[in-house]
Every structure is written in C-alpha cells, then in structure tokens.
Amino acid sequence: MKNDKPTDKLLTSPTRRDVLKTGAAGGLVLAASLGVGPTTLEAASLQVPRRVLGKTGETVPILLMGGAMPLDQRFDPKLAEAYRYGVNYYDAADCYAGGTCETAVGAFHQRAKLRDKIWITSKSDEHDPAGFEKTFNESLVKLQTSYIDMYFLHMLRDPNKLSPELLKVLEKLKKEKKVKFFGFSCHHGNVPELLHKAAATPWVDAVMYRYNFRQYGNAELNKAMDAAHAAKVGLIAMKTQGSAVSFEEKRHEFEQSGKWNKYQAVLKAVWADERISAAVSAMDNLDKLHENVAAALDKTKLTQAESNEIWRYAAATRSLACDGCDHLCGPQVEAPVQIGPTLRYLMYHDVYGHADTAKELFRALPPEAREFRHVDFRAAMAACPNGVDIERHIKRAATVLA
Ligand code: SF4
C-alpha cells in the first residue's frame, strides 16, 4: 500500500477545532452509515504524518485505527473519518469485538471501494501452523478481501511458536499472494525476550507491543527495542495510554496544566521516540479520533513542563497500573488465577468503558481462573514492582466482570 496523499502539509499547531474546520464530514459519514449517502470519502486537507514501518519499506500513518471496539457492521463512521485524515491503517483481529471487527472493516472498505487505499492488519489467536492457516483463511472471508497486508500471531508469549513449520505456512500464503507481511503482538511480561527473538528472525516484519510513558526508563526493554529497530523490525506501540485502574482524579489534575489532555500528551510522548513507527488507538468516538488526529498533526514537541507532568503522573498512578508482567506475581499464588489478564479486563471495563467486551473476555477464562475466594495474594503483591493492590482489584474484577 503506497500513500497517495500529501504527507507533511500541516499547520504548525492544529487543534481539534482546526481538524473539525478542515474536514467536518460528520454528516457525510453518518449518512453513508445509514445507507443513504455517498460512499466516496473526500480526503481532508490535513493528513496525519507517516513513517516507514521497518523492513516492510511501506509508510504507515503514525496514528493507527484500532479495532478492539464495537463497530457498525454496515459502514462505521469512525473508520471512514479516520481514512479522511490519512489514518488508513486498520488494526483488526479475529477475536476483536466478539469476532465482529473483521466483518465491519470488510463492510467498510467494500462500501467505500477503498481496498487498495488502505492497510489491513489482522491477527490469529491460533499459534500452531494448521490453526493459524485456518484462521487466516477465515479472516480473508470476513474481511472481504483477497489479501491481508500484514498478519500477526496475536498475544504471542512463547517465542518457539515462531517455528520453521509456521514459516512454511507463511511462505505458502505469500506465494498465493494472500499476505504481504508477518509479525506478532505481545501483551505479556516477556516483551524484551520477544523483541530480541524478532530481531533474530528475518521473517518477522513488525511487532506490536505495550509501550507507553511508564516504561521509558526500562533498560531491558530499551535494549530489546534497540536490537529490533537495528534489525529493521517495525515497532508499533499499543496500550499507549498506560491506563491505570481508578485514575480519573489524577488525570484531571494532570490536565489542569499544559496544552494537551492526557490522551494526547502520552501519544506525543510515544511519537517522540523515533524507533516507534506508529501508535495504535481504539478511537471509539469521533471526538477522541479528532483529538488524536490533532495531536498527530501538531509538530511541536512536548515542553519540559509537560514532560515533567507526565513523569509526575506516572509516579502518582504507578500502584494503579498493571504492566502485564504476571510472570512475576503469578507464580506467587497457589491457585490457577490469571492476574495479568484479569486486571487488563478490569481496565477495559473501568477506563476504556468497554464493559461488555471486558465481561466477555473475563467469562472466557477457565472457571478455575475466576475463582478468587480463599486465594492468598500477599506474596504476589510483595512481588509486584508497581506495588499494585492485587487483592483489592481482583475482588473488584470478580464483582463487576462476573
Ligand atoms: S500485578 Fe504487578 S506483577 Fe502482576 S502483572 Fe500487574 S504489574 Fe506485573
């Protein structure tokens, strides 16, 4: 996919209002979503900048449209509005939104006749070669396309899954022109190990992983990112908000100073890292989309005061943020509970406002992983580097996600 839009024709400091002024197409995309309007989407005059995605050699917008949210199955206005600002990379997965993300992206590009103008990444939860190929072919059907730009192993944890057998399947799919690039996403605590593995695996084109302002001082992660970047593995940041459970009060404090709201500021902090090609964001309403686009369009750097505010916010909310490193706390519990995923689903519920998705994910855990009564979390809490009050949050998860 080549970008056929102007890449850097930007104002110095566009605000959300500027974005709306230059491209207010809400009526157009809404009409299209109702099936009564035009399907041709006009590009806005402001286009989000692009960066090269590692060894793919392709450019992608620095802001990517995340698909882990409910989407209109007929024609989603958010997908359309993103496209108008050059956010033409859609991040799907076979499991997102209860399996409906891929069908929504498929309906969108079919309706607007945009397949060759957009980049679609999708992912398989199946990590064994046969299951991977089966899911891939199902994704093709749901996405209504003959090819997928990039396909990921979703939530990779075991580096050995990047096996010669998987490579064989991938080579076959590439020969059939069904896929262009390959990579993986990782949500667990062994991101540095997986980034080193990606750096040493020539057929891994890109990795999507948790990266945000809370991790800038992490020497092990930085070393792994350097290795992957040097090997031209495209790096995509997710979970950029570094969201913390029950953080609203601190967020309001944060936003009283500086020009950016918290969501914009932490995105800008990620983009300041030139090893990162792009940040993915599930922009579940047009306001959030316009705010993120305005932040992406803005060329100014965060001021020292704004950066200091981010560090202060990180410190103030550290014990409310779970980094998913449950290889540290998990072994300390004598029960088959899953602390990292459970706290992540609680965050989806509390912070992202995706209550239904959070409940669905939680209920998909094995029954024994949802049984918290009589579990002693004291050793796990002592092992947590963030000082998370695991017991309190897990009990809350058991109540609100059950
Ligand atoms: S509770 Fe602490 S140790 Fe466990 S996954 Fe979260 S941050 Fe890591």
Provide structural commentary:
- The chain is α/β, with parallel strands linked by helices.
- The chain has two domains: 16-312, TIM Barrel (Alpha-Beta Barrel); 322-400, no CATH class.
- 43% of the residues lie in helices and 12% in strands.
- The chain has helices at residues 16-23, 26-33, 77-84, 96-99, 101-112, 129-142, 164-175, 191-199, 219-230, 248-255, 262-271, 286-297, 304-316, 326-329, 339-352, 355-363, 378-383, 390-400; strands at residues 50-52, 59-61, 63-66, 89-91, 119-124, 148-153, 179-186, 206-210, 234-238, 276-281.
- The strands form two sheets. An eight-stranded parallel beta barrel has the order 3-4-5-6-7-8-9-10, surrounded by seven helices. The protein has a two-stranded antiparallel sheet with strand order 1-2.
- α6 packs parallel to α7 and α15 runs antiparallel to α16 (355-363).
- It is globular, with a radius of gyration of 21 Å.
- The termini are far apart.
- Bound molecules: iron/sulfur cluster.
- Iron/sulfur cluster (SF4) binds at residues 322-326, 328-329, 339-340, 343, 384, 386, 388, 390.
- Iron/sulfur cluster binds at residues 322-326, 328-329, 339-340, 343, 384, 386, 388, 390.
In short:
Helix content is 43%, strand content 12%. With 402 residues, it is an alpha/beta fold.
Question: What descriptive keywords fit this protein?
Answer:
18 helices; 402 residues; 10 strands; globular; 8-stranded parallel β-barrel; 2 domains; TIM Barrel; two-stranded antiparallel ribbon; binds iron/sulfur cluster; alpha/beta; disordered N terminus
